[in-house]
Amino acid sequence: MQIGHYKLNTQVLLAPMAGTSDKPFRMLCREQGAALTTSEMVVIQKHLLNTNKSKYRLDFSGEQSPISIQIAGSEASQLAESAVQAVSFGADIIDINMGCPAKKVCNKAAGSALMQNEKLVADILNAVVASVDIPVTLKMRTGWNEENKNAPTIAKIAEDAGIQMIAIHGRTREQKYLGEAEYETVAKIVSDANIPVVVNGDISSAEKAKEVLDYTSADAVMLGRATQGNPWLIGEVHHHLSTGKIKSPMSQNDKIPVILNHISRIHDFYGNILGTQLARKHIFWYSMRLDQKKARDFWPNINRVSDHSEQYFIFRDFLHSL
């Protein structure tokens, strides 16, 4: 799949996920075979640039190209300025967020709330594309609610504006993450579009990825929540899509150094105090994936640990005890 002059080497992309797709996780997922990883959504405004959140979210040093930065906002001029700023932080690709269903985002008429106003969508997409000389992509949902699945209309607006790839989560904003994703809307967009279309939502296995690609004829899959505590899913999906065969699962012993390296990266990137806090959710996800029963007993103890070294070694001992 091609985005501008960037040729992606697999059909597996990592979804932008607030609180998950930070730098340590993106780097891990690229190592597992993701062709493209996109940053957590960021609002790039001058008064926010000195905050810790912006400092960490806009650090892409040492990451592989192409670097995709997702921007969010509710006004065309604001998003165009964010795109210009994103380029200065190293963006090779700008991604526009019209998919986030979170209340705090939608209440500001951003994220998937934008899909209610097709005129504003057109203004935003045209303004962002005109503001930068790098590819611009779009992530959205199937629509606002079941009665208003206007993603096909917005996809046409996006293509006309010069958007170079569309990723679609198979739920409406109203659904949030409830129920099951549907792919009929994605298939309709693929049949009408002349730009790459990526399908997202409920793709939790290599077999499901192949099934969804076959059904939609999309160009690639985008994995999201299924990678939490399970980044090797990326390699499993890539192997199946490229060979037609099921990859042998990674052994627990082989997973342990990958997991511990990820926790160390979190500590190193964020510092000992914040790193310890942010590592907790990943420790929970990894533990639950490996052994739910033991994880439930282990979690209350590790969750109280406030020292990064102690956290690392207690978790290491837990992993080796499985």
Report on the structure:
The chain has helices at 23-31, 52-57, 76-88, 103-106, 118-131, 151-161, 184-192, 206-216, 233-243, 252-270, 272-290, 292-303, 308-321, and strands at residues 2-3, 6-7, 12-14, 36-37, 68-71, 93-98, 136-141, 165-169, 197-200, 220-223. With 322 residues, it is α/β, with parallel strands linked by helices. The chain has an eight-stranded parallel β-sheet, with helices on one face. Strands 1-2 form a two-stranded antiparallel sheet.
CATH class of the largest domain: Alpha Beta
Helix % is 40-55%
CA-atom Rg in angstroms: 19 Å
Q: What general outline do the C-alpha atoms trace? A: globular
Integer count of domains? 2
Average pLDDT taken over every residue = 92
Number of helices: 13
Number of DSSP-assigned strands: 10
Assembly context of the chains: single chain
C-alpha end-to-end distance: 40 Å
Structural class category? alpha/beta
Distinctive features:
single chain, 322 residues, alpha/beta, TIM Barrel, 2 domains, eight-stranded parallel sheet, two-stranded antiparallel ribbon, 10 strands, globular
